[in-house]
Write a structure and sequence with these properties.
Mean pLDDT of chain A: 87
Order of helices and strands of chain B: HHHHHEEHHHHEEEEHHEHHEEHEEHHEE
Low-confidence stretches of chain A: none
Distance between the termini of chain B: 94 Å
CATH class of chain A: Alpha Beta
Strand content of chain B: 5-15%
Order of helices and strands of chain A: EHEHEHEHEH
Helix content of chain A: 40-55%
Mean pLDDT of chain B: 82
Radius of gyration of chain A: 13 Å
CATH topology of chain A: Rossmann fold
Helix content of chain B: 55-70%
Largest sheet of chain A: 5 strands, parallel
Oligomer: heterodimer
Strand order of the largest sheet of chain A: 2-1-3-4-5
Largest sheet of chain B: 6 strands, antiparallel
Chain lengths: 122, 614
């Protein structure tokens, strides 16, 4: 079972994505701020992380950077899902080692497709 | 009161002096003529008469003598007649001579003549007595001894009278001659003196008149040259003096008038300067050769200048801002106000703060309507920029905040619709479709709002390049081909050959896409949408025309405003009402213009302009 870590502070998004991914059979853990997100990621070592940018305590870019600096998570798939859709944000995300940058709003189908693509499940 | 000698009096006086000289001259001449006449009268009348009388007396005497001889020789009757006839003649001449006594001597001679002639007549009576006695011899003796010597005596006396008169005539002639000579010489002398006097007087009088006139002319020339301080210094009390006095008072009034004008001008100048100085935006006034005439304190602060250091210097030497200078020269050339465009903003940093200025140049025209001054105002729009910035930040924040809830809504609806969480009935599905449509619409709205705020705040970066119009058309039409054929609408792309424009391919594609999207919304089966482009002048005109329902007249000028939709738009969920405002912003950011021509029921044609390749 693939382990997916969702780092997101909006409870409605958490609810919807949890429902979607659990239904699809992923092992999902959720963290609501950057610091806990990083901790859990290093501890639990998920296969894939869904990362928001606007997060309490530590923002998504910093989370991404921190995780890429650590050898435990250096190869973990990181998909940024953010409302920030500016060109420079997207660019920054990729520079910091994100595998994908999805801008909100997103479709469930779209999200599943991207996750499956990166986990090479398709 | 001073005695006044008017110019007229002076001239008259001069004439009078000359006339007086003439009168003296004439008097002298008359005197000369009179003395000449006297001499001539002496000769012609008195002496000449006496001479004639003397000659007549001598002739009569001779004849009487002859008559006596004839008497002696017997013819007494005849002799007596001759004697008596000549006696009358003699007496006549003698009395004439007596009437013409002019000389002292003459008096004596004539009285002697009277006495002697009487004796002579007595002696003839004696002779007649002798004749009556008949004694011829005695008669002859008497004649020879008595009468003849007496005759001789009278004859001599008569001759004396003649001589005296002739002598006197000669004297009178010489006197007349000398008088004439004297008259000629004196007349010449007097005439010369008179001429000299007249000329001198003439020169004196004309000088007297002309000198003040000349001085007047000189002074007037100087005053006319602008020296109002100059006064005419003529003290004569004649007409010229009066004229000078009037002229002086006129100059005085002129001076007062000038002073009033100058003070008015100074007031006006102070007023304008006050206004200029109190204007809170930087202001620069330049002349027709782009020299700085005036800058206000705000401009001094902005450019770190001092007005007194820079006035009269060429604009570009002092302020190296091509944008401002271009605007000034444009205004000088066209004589029209130039107002900075939204994207044409000057940026300055002073007091460690960014300042933004919009350039406005206004012409100041002279009487002939030619621009001779340009007033440049740099309108401080920093606060507008700040508001704009705040607005974009606000819009940006709001749209971000919208996206997260929209995501959960969107995902929830989708998951429900895909029945991941269980089956739903048709009614529920329909309701969810409605919700899905509107979340999509909200999503588009947020996207467009963000785009618009970016473009409006000038954040949009245009990636200019020379692009083929055909390429733009291809990429614009591509996403619509299926939809158009579904609706059975003819989407036509005119052949535009190799025509190129200088533009940002993606942004212009966005504009045309938006226009085609709109056109599709307002067309129905069988309609046409035509894309065309052509070059006119140094611009390229690109148009998207449709044969759809058209736009009502009252909406045509409003459709480029935000959230305006033509009243016939029934498919409300399909557009955000921000497409055309964004299109307009993009076209204007390219330096172009966009407009629409439409007729209800016949279709619409959107046209915009782009620049030719560089």
């Amino acid at each position: 079972m693939n382990k997916v870590l969702l780092i997101e502070d909006n409870k409605n998004i958490i609810k919807v994505i949890s429902m979607l991914l659990t239904d699809e059979g992923f092992d999902l853990k959720v963290e609501k701020d950057g610091v806990n997100g990083v901790e859990t990621a290093l501890e639990w070592e998920p296969d894939l992380i869904l990362l928001d940018i606007k997060l309490p305590k530590m923002n998504g870019f910093l989370v991404c950077e921190t995780l890429r600096d650590n050898e435990k998570t250096v190869d973990t798939k990181i998909i940024i899902v953010s409302a920030k859709a500016e060109e420079e944000d997207i660019q920054r995300g990729f520079e910091l080692g994100a595998d994908e940058y999805m801008t909100k709003p997103i479709n469930p189908d779209e999200l599943l497709e991207v996750i499956n693509k990166h986990l090479k499940l398709l | 009161m001073k005695k006044k000698f008017s110019l007229k009096h002076k001239i008259l006086l001069g004439y009078m002096a000359i006339t007086l000289i003439l009168i003296v001259l004439a008097g002298w001449a008359i005197y000369n003529f009179m003395s000449l006449d006297e001499s001539i009268h002496d000769i012609m009348v008195e002496n000449y008469q006496s001479v004639i009388a003397s000659e007549g007396m001598m002739e009569a005497l001779e004849r009487q003598d002859s008559a006596e001889l004839i008497f002696i020789f017997g013819q007494q009757e005849e002799a007596l007649e001759i004697f008596q006839k000549n006696q009358i003649e003699f007496m006549k001449h003698l009395s004439r001579a007596e009437d013409n006594i002019t000389i002292e001597e003459e008096n004596q001679i004539i009285s002697n003549l009277n006495k002697d002639y009487q004796t002579y007549l007595d002696k003839f009576i004696q002779l007649r007595d002798l004749a009556n006695e008949g004694n011829i011899e005695e008669m002859q003796n008497y004649y020879l001894t008595d009468i003849m010597p007496h005759f001789q005596k009278i004859k001599n006396e008569t001759r004396d009278l003649l001589t005296v008169n002739q002598e006197h005539m000669r004297e009178a002639q010489s006197k007349a001659n000398s008088r004439a000579t004297q008259a000629i010489y004196s007349s010449i002398i007097f005439s010369v003196i008179a001429i000299i006097l007249a000329i001198t007087l003439g020169i004196y009088i004309s000088n007297k008149i002309l000198k003040p006139i000349n001085s007047l002319t000189e002074t007037i020339k100087e005053i006319a040259g602008g020296n109002l301080e100059k006064k005419i210094n003529i003290t004569t009390k004649d007409e010229i003096g009066e004229l000078a006095e009037e002229f002086n008072s006129m100059t005085e009034r002129l001076k007062e008038y000038e002073q009033i004008n100058i003070s008015k001008l100074i007031d006006e100048k102070n007023k304008s300067e006050g206004i200029v100085k109190s204007i809170s935006n930087p202001l620069i006034v330049t002349d027709d050769e782009n020299r700085i005439l005036l800058i206000n304190p705000e401009a001094e602060k902005l450019f770190n200048l001092r007005e007194k250091d820079v006035s009269g210097t060429h604009f570009l030497e002092i302020i190296k801002e091509e944008k401002i200078f271009d605007s000034i020269t444009e205004t000088l050339e066209t004589g029209k106000e130039q107002k900075g465009q939204k994207n044409d903003v000057l940026e300055f940093t002073y007091n460690n703060k960014e300042h933004y200025y919009r350039i406005t140049t206004n012409p100041v025209k002279d009487k002939k309507g030619e621009t001779n001054l340009v007033v440049t105002i740099l309108e401080d729009i920093t606060h507008l920029k700040e508001v704009d910035q705040m607005k974009s930040e606000f819009v940006s924040m709001v749209s971000h905040e919208f996206r997260t809830p929209l995501t959960s809504m969107n995902m929830s609806i989708n998951m429900l619709l895909e029945e991941n969480t269980g089956e739903i009935n048709e009614d529920q599905k329909e309701l969810l479709e409605v919700a899905k449509d509107d979340t999509e619409h909200l999503n588009n709205l947020v996207d467009d709002l963000l785009d618009l705020s970016k473009i409006e705040s000038g954040k949009i970066d245009l990636d200019f390049e020379n692009v083929k119009v055909e390429e733009i058309f291809n990429s614009s039409i591509n996403p619509f081909e299926n939809k158009a054929s579904d609706k059975n609408i003819d989407l036509i792309q005119k052949d535009v050959g190799d025509l190129k424009v200088y533009a940002d391919l993606n942004k212009i594609t966005w504009v045309i896409t938006n226009l085609i999207g709109n056109a599709l919304r307002y067309t129905t089966e069988g309609d046409k949408i035509v894309l065309d482009a052509n070059k006119k002048g140094h611009k390229v005109y690109i148009s998207v025309a449709d044969t759809g329902e058209g736009i009502p007249k009252e909406y045509q000028h409003k459709i480029f405003e935000k959230f305006v939709r033509a009243g016939t738009d029934q498919d409300e969920s399909s557009g955000t009402g921000l497409g055309l405002p964004i299109a307009k912003e993009i076209v204007e950011a390219h330096g172009g213009r966009i407009w629409v021509k439409s007729k209800e029921g016949e279709g619409s044609k959107f046209t915009f302009t782009l620049k030719l390749p560089k």
